[in-house]
Amino acid sequence: MGVTLEWSEEACIISGDNRALPGNVGKTAIELWCRSKSGHSVLLLVNGLNPYLEISDPRTNSNSGSSSLSLESVSEDWRVVGSPLPLGNKLYEGNEIPHWRVFVKDTTIVRKLRNDLSSQGWDVTSSDILLVHRLLMDCDLGPHISYSGEVLWVGERAPKEISRVQDADSASERIKELGGAGLYPVDLIVSCNVSDLKRVEPFPTPFVTFSYDLETSVKHNTILCAAAVIDRSGERTTHEFIGSEKEIMEGLTRLVRDEDPDFITGYNIDNFDLPRTLERSEENSNSFSEQSSMFGWGRVPLTNKEIGVKKIGRIFPKRQQNRVWRISGRIPLDAWWQARQTLSPQRESLRYVSNLLWPEQDDKQKLDVDASQMDMEWANRPEEVMEYCVRDTILPLDILEKLKSIPRKEALASVSSTTVETASAGTTSQWIDSLKISR
């Protein structure tokens, strides 16, 4: 790749994940999806922090320098990296007892190792914290950071002063060597060490938001048309989609991957638009590869591994057990749920909420189309239906702006020292854990 390019700046951490480095070397890279202070998106590949858990022998006390259980058998476990690291005495269930830190090859095997160690008689702690949360806790970081590192890939929207990397194939291989998945759909990809990350004073991040709406057939559940609006620091562009269902969904997916939003919004997308898009993409093809062209909204490369072979990969939005949607590298933020939480309206329809917020503004109201007769409306006046659809993508953005929903999430992330995703979709216990667990 020639001369190594270095870059440093401030950014806000949107979300994170982790991947094991290739070759079973017992090292893990942390992926941090960020939006820089100057407006471009960044994927940081962070090395230098590996997953671990801590163990103690319940039969020891503060005067015991060793354990009656076998530390040697722990270090000989194929899942463990090196020998357990003595930490000295730590408080556990009211007693000061010796603890050891056990480094693990991969986050995917932590749970099984924890269970096995417990069955051997060890007390196991610090084993259920996601590695990206561990990074923020151990390194005393919040969402707003400064970083410096090696530039691996540069997109069109990246700062002009960064020299462009010409060979995409070589860049992709270098990214994979460092634990990444390939060429992520972001503006800048940088490799750094945990020591290259520093907490900085909070700043208002220029997030990019994607709002969308589907109009569907009442008779057949098929998608008739769609609209989307990209809000980039207050500058909005509107996009309309008609044609076959496949063409509509492929158009939406290209827009998501090209414009690279941080937030995905709409009105009641959690319960309607996202599940309907998933349903129709599956209905249109049994192939994960073809489905990814219709609903591959994750901020990860379009590779076979990320698409999935036997089960769907990270490229697809997924609904969690708590019914919250997760999109790798992005944050679903339903304007319906934000209005419900903030306003507690008597009725929760978009028409009612819009009228509640802007009773005197006609341009902030829903248009007069009968959604219960959408097949007939689409057949008789498609232009009005499309205008109605576009309005229903603009209003959610206006609602989020009026309620200051995104700045509130960023502020909560800053106060609780979490990613913006955790502040948006996480639990109260995760916020408290971040504040209470010593760094």
UniProtKB/TrEMBL annotation:
Domain DNA-directed DNA polymerase family B exonuclease intervals: 244-352
Pfam families in the record: DNA_pol_B_exo1
A GO biological process held by the record: DNA-templated DNA replication
Recorded GO MF terms: DNA-directed DNA polymerase activity; nucleic acid binding
UniProt name for this protein: DNA-directed DNA polymerase family B exonuclease domain-containing protein
Signal peptide as annotated in the record: none
